[in-house]
Design a protein that fits this description.
The chain has about 110 residues and is mostly helical. It folds into two domains: about 1-30; about 35-105, no CATH class. It has four helices and no strands. The radius of gyration is 21 Å and the shape is extended.
């Protein structure tokens, strides 16, 4: 491995460690967390998921419904399975498997 490669890996490891340790350094256990940080902690996960859904469905053509049918069914299965099972990983896997099967069948 070259010096450039070693330095790249070292910088990536350092930045990753700093990002992981930053919350503990900025907000120690004895000090109250600022209200805006608590607010972001509540709303950002939902906003991230919403952006991912929009990103995934941005190129879907809904005009002929048959063209969008695999996408609609897979998203519906993902949402319904999560509502029933409360398991994100399982719901995503079910939706992905359903979509992969449907694009081959329909």
């Amino acid at each position: 491995m070259t010096l450039h490669g070693v330095l790249t890996v070292a910088v990536a490891a350092l930045v990753t460690a700093l990002i992981r340790f930053a919350p503990f350094l900025l907000f120690p256990p004895g000090r109250p967390m600022p209200a805006y940080i608590a607010y972001l902690g509540r709303v950002l996960p939902y906003a991230s998921i919403g952006m991912l859904v929009v990103y995934c469905l941005r190129a879907v053509n809904f005009l002929p419904l048959t063209a969008a049918l695999p996408d609609v069914i897979a998203v519906a299965l993902t949402v319904l399975s999560y509502r029933k099972l409360r398991n994100s990983l399982l719901s995503i896997m079910l939706g992905t498997a359903c979509y992969m099967i449907l694009i081959r069948v329909i």
